[in-house]
Specification:
Chain lengths: 524, 524
C-alpha cells in the first residue's frame, strides 16, 4: 500500500507524520501517513482545474467505462480492503462487506446512468422564424459539470461516503474532477481505494488530475482546498459544526461556492396509537436493532421516538428496555466520537426531566472505545421547553417523547428542525386519521417512511437523502442515489448554435437516443 | 389605486411617507406611499407561513387557475398600468407593452406547466420483496415547495421581474407563498399589479397570505423579511453589492437560507475575424442597437466586445462610432442609476489606457436623468492588467477589447468571471476553428449565443438565464423560463407509503397522467 499523498498520477511526500488508531485496541496502527502541505493542495487543485478542461468534455460513455473500471479495481482489493477498514473503524466485517457492495454498486449504477444519458435534462425549443412580433430563436439546454470538486471523506462510511463514495462517484460521473481530503481516521482504507482509482484512471488514459487524494490529521489542508480559487463545489458528511465551518469559509471566498454538507439529523419516529397497541413487542425489536446498528453511527439513526401516552406504551417501553439491555457494547469509530458520545449522552441523561428506560449491560472490557446503548424518556411538555433535547447525540442513543394527546404530539413535531428522515409506525387503517402529523413530517424531512426503520438507505433513482437545514445545507439536493449528480452540474443553453457544433445531446437527430423535452414534448 | 401595504387581504398603513420620482422630469410623483414597519414584515411572513400549510398542498391545476386569473387581472389594468410604469421608469410605451406581454405570457406558460404536471420530477422505484440479501422497499419521490419566498422587485423590469414577474410567478406556481418587497422606484406600478393579484386570489378563495406586498424606500423592511424565520428563500435581481448583502444576511440566520440573486454580468461578445471582415457594418448596427436598447439597462447588455486586430476592425469601429453618435439620449430608470452610470463610466474613460470610440451627441435637455451612450476601446494587454475593467457599468456603455492575436483573445476570455451570456459573431465556416474560444465561453456563461445580440431573452423551457458567480449566486439555477421553478422546490421521497395517501403524482395508476421515471423507464 502506498501511503503518500497522491496528486494526479504522482505520489508526493508531505510533512508531519501521523498514524490512525485502531479503535478496538486504542493503539496506533502501523501504517504511517504524512500530512499534505498547503502547496500540495494548491498543486492538486491546479491540476484538477486543468484536467477539468478535458474531462468536462468527455462523453458519458467514456466516464461510464472509468467508473466501471474503478468498481472492478475496488473489488479486486478483496479482503485487504475489508481488513484495513475493520482495523481503522472497529466496524464488523459483514457491515463493511455490505458497504463495499454499496460502494461498488453505486459506481455501476452511475455508469448505467451515463450510458443511458438522459440525466442531462436536454431541452430543445426550436426556432420559429416567422413568429410575430419577433422571430423565435433556437435554444437548446443541458446540464454541464461545474468544475473541480473537493470531497471530504466521512468517518462513518469509510467506503460508501469516503474516497470513492457517493459524492466522488457523482462528481466524476458529472464530469467534475475530484480532490479528496481523506478522513484521518481511516487513511489505509482511503489509500487502498485511491490506488484503485489511480489504476482505473491510468488504464483508460484519463487526463492527469481527474483524481487526487490528500491526507491530513488537522484542518490545514481541508481549509486550503476549500479556499482554493479552482474549487467550485465542496461536499462533506459530518457534524453540524464541521459543516458550517466549511460553509463559512466557502462564503467568504472572493467567489462564494456551494458546500453540500450533510450534517445533523435526529430522525424522529412517530409511534401511532394503533401500532403501539397492536404490536409493542415488534416495534421495540425493530427500534432496538435500528438504534444500536453499527453502534448508532448512522446519519439516519432514530434519535427521537414519539408516542401518545396510552395502551401498549408501557409494554413497548418494557420490551425496549429488555432489548437494549441485551445488546453488546460496541466499538465506536474513533476515540473522539466515543468521548463525545459519553459527554453528550451524560449531559442529556443528567437532566432531571429525563429518565433512563434502559441501557446495555454487556460491556466488552477487552476492547477500547466501547459504547453502551441507552434509551431514555421525557415528557413532551419538558421536551418543548429546551432546545438542547433536539441536538444530535451521535451514537446508540434515543429519546422517547411521551405526549399527553394528539395536540401535544403535533406540537412536538412542529417544533422540530429539518431532518433527513421522519418515520411513522402505524396500523394500515389509522394512518388516514393522522394526516396532519404526516403532512408535517413531509414538510420537515427529505424522506418519510411508513413502518420501517430509517436506518438502511436504498441507493436508487427515487431515493432522497437530504432535507431542510440542519439536516443538510441545501435541502434542494440529495447526496444518495442517481439524483445526487445534480449537485455538480449547472444548465447551459446554446442559442442559434451551429448544428454540427452542438453537444451530441442536443443535436437534431438525437444521436445518443436520450429522452428530451423537445418543443414541449418528452420524446426520444 | 390603493397605495397602502397589503398583508394578505388587508391593507395596512405603514410609517414614513415617500413618493417615487418621475425620472424624465426629475420631479416627485403624486402618489404617496408609506414605508412598512418591521411589525408589518413579521405579520406578512407569519401569514405566509400559515398560508403555506394549505397552499403547498393545493393541486397544480388549482394553482394554474390562480395564475391565469392573475394574468387576466393584469391585462384588465389596460393603459393605466403602462402609464404608471412610464411615469415611474422613463421607459417608452412599446418597451413596457412588450414587458407586460412577457409578464402575462409567463403566467400562462406556468399555468400550462402546472396543468401538464410532469415538472415535479416524479420517480418511482417499486418494492422487490424477495431481493437478497435484503428486500427492496418501495420509494417514490417528487418535488415539493420549500416555503414562503421573499421576492425583491427589480428596478429594470417593473413588471416582468417585479411584483408578479418571473420570480413570483415561479414561486406561486411551485406552491410557495410570496411576500414582495416592492422596488421603491415604481410603487404605483407595483400597487396596480398587487391589486390584480389580490383580486385573483380572492376570486378563487385562496388562503389569505399566499401574497403580500410591502413598500419601503430604505432597507429596513427588506432586512426584516430576509431575517424572518418563516422565510425559506429570497430572490433578487440587481447589483452585486445588493445581492451579496442579502446573501450575507441569509447566511447569518440561525437557519441559513438560499438567496437566488441575479447580479453583475458584462456579457462578452467575441467578434471573430471572418465576421468582422465580411460584415462590419451589420455587426456595428446590431451592437449599436443592443448596447443602447432601454438605455443599456438590461442585465444582458453587451458590456464587452472582443476582437482580434485585423481586416474589418477599423470599418466596424467607424460604423459603431457613427451609430452611437446618432443615438438619442435616453432617460435612465432612477436618478441614482443615472448618477452611478455617470460616475462609473467617467472613472473608466478617464483611465489613460482607454480611448473613446464614440458617444451619443443628441442630448434631450428637456428631460432629466438623460444618459449618453458611449463605446470605448482598450488593448487586450491593458485590459488584462486591471480587474476594474471587468466591472459592470450599468447603462449604455461597452468596451471594445482589441487583441493582437488569437492567443491573447483566449487569455482575455479565460480571465473573465461568470456571465449570464457569452456571444460569438462568426461566419458559418469559421466557428469550428475557434472551438477553444467557444468551449471557454460555455464554461463561463449560462447562455452562449451565435450571431445574435445577448439582449432579448426568450421565455421558454430551454432558456437558461443564470450563470457562474458573480452573474448569479448559484449557477445551478435559472431565473427565466419554466425551469426557474426549481429554485423553489426540494425533493421528498415516500418510503413504503400507504398507496391511497400518496400524492396523486406518485400513485400507481398515475391519475394525473404525467411523465415519470418508473423503475428506470420514462413513461406516462
Amino acid at each position: 500500500m502506498e501511503t503518500r499523498n497522491l496528486i494526479g498520477y504522482q505520489y508526493t511526500k508531505g510533512g508531519k507524520a501521523f498514524n490512525a488508531t485502531n479503535p478496538a485496541t486504542g493503539k496506533p496502527l502501523e501504517a504511517e501517513f504524512n500530512a499534505a502541505s498547503v502547496e500540495d493542495a494548491d498543486k492538486a487543485m491546479k491540476l484538477a482545474a486543468s484536467a477539468f478542461e478535458v474531462y468536462s468534455l468527455t462523453s458519458g460513455k467514456t466516464r461510464a467505462v472509468f467508473l466501471r473500471s474503478i468498481a472492478e479495481e475496488i473489488t479486486a482489493l478483496g479482503d485487504t480492503l475489508i481488513e484495513a477498514a475493520m482495523s481503522e473503524t472497529g466496524l464488523p466485517a459483514p457491515r463493511l462487506q455490505g458497504e463495499r457492495a454499496r460502494t461498488v454498486n453505486q459506481l455501476y449504477m452511475y455508469a448505467d446512468l451515463l450510458d443511458e444519458g438522459s440525466w442531462v435534462e436536454a431541452i430543445i425549443d426550436t426556432a420559429i422564424p416567422d413568429r410575430k412580433p419577433l422571430p423565435r430563436v433556437d435554444i437548446r439546454k443541458m446540464m454541464v459539470p461545474i468544475g473541480p470538486a473537493v470531497v471530504f471523506g466521512a468517518s462513518n462510511f469509510p467506503m460508501a461516503y469516503s474516497v470513492m463514495g457517493g459524492d466522488s462517484c457523482a462528481a466524476l460521473a458529472s464530469g467534475c474532477p475530484v480532490v479528496v481530503k481523506a478522513h484521518p481516521a481511516h487513511p489505509s482504507t482511503s489509500a487502498l481505494v485511491a490506488e484503485a482509482v489511480k489504476k482505473a484512471a491510468e488504464k483508460h488514459y484519463l487526463t492527469e488530475g481527474v483524481f487526487s487524494i490528500l491526507y491530513d490529521d488537522g484542518y490545514t489542508v481541508g481549509e486550503a482546498l476549500v479556499k482554493h480559487p479552482a474549487t467550485k463545489i465542496v461536499t462533506f458528511t459530518g457534524s453540524l459544526k464541521g459543516g458550517m465551518a466549511l460553509v463559512k469559509m466557502a462564503q467568504e471566498r472572493d467567489e462564494p461556492i456551494p458546500v453540500f454538507a450533510e450534517m445533523g439529523s435526529i430522525n424522529p419516529v412517530v409511534l401511532l396509537p394503533g401500532a403501539l397497541q397492536s404490536r409493542p413487542q415488534e416495534l421495540a425489536k425493530t427500534y432496538t436493532d435500528s438504534i444500536t446498528m453499527s453502534a448508532g453511527q448512522f446519519c439516519t439513526n432514530p434519535g427521537l421516538l414519539l408516542a401518545i401516552n396510552g395502551p401498549g406504551l408501557e409494554e413497548f417501553k418494557a420490551a425496549l428496555k429488555q432489548g437494549i439491555e441485551e445488546v453488546n457494547s460496541a466499538t465506536m469509530l474513533t476515540p473522539g466520537i466515543c468521548a463525545n458520545f459519553g459527554k453528550l449522552s451524560e449531559q442529556m441523561l443528567s437532566d432531571k426531566v429525563i429518565s433512563v428506560i434502559g441501557h446495555s449491560e454487556k460491556l466488552n472490557d477487552e476492547n477500547a472505545n466501547q459504547v453502551l446503548a441507552v434509551v431514555a424518556e421525557i415528557k413532551a411538555a419538558d421536551f418543548l421547553e429546551d432546545e438542547k433535547f433536539k441536538e444530535e447525540v451521535f451514537g446508540p442513543y434515543s429519546l422517547l417523547i411521551v405526549a399527553d394527546d394528539l395536540k401535544q404530539l403535533q406540537q412536538v413535531v412542529d417544533s422540530l428542525h429539518g431532518q433527513l428522515t421522519a418515520t411513522v409506525m402505524a396500523e394500515k387503517d389509522e394512518l388516514v386519521n393522522y394526516r396532519s402529523i404526516t403532512d408535517s413530517l413531509a414538510k420537515l424531512a427529505g424522506r418519510v417512511i411508513l413502518n420501517g426503520p430509517p436506518t438502511g438507505v436504498e441507493v436508487n433513482n427515487a431515493i432522497n437523502h437530504g432535507g431542510p437545514f440542519p439536516a443538510t445545507t441545501d435541502g434542494r439536493f440529495t447526496s444518495v442515489g442517481t439524483s445526487s449528480i445534480k449537485r455538480f452540474v449547472r444548465p447551459v443553453c446554446w442559442q442559434n448554435w451551429h448544428p454540427d457544433l452542438l453537444p451530441d445531446e442536443l443535436k437534431d437527430n438525437n444521436p445518443l437516443n436520450i429522452w428530451r423535452l423537445n418543443n414541449n414534448e418528452w420524446k426520444k
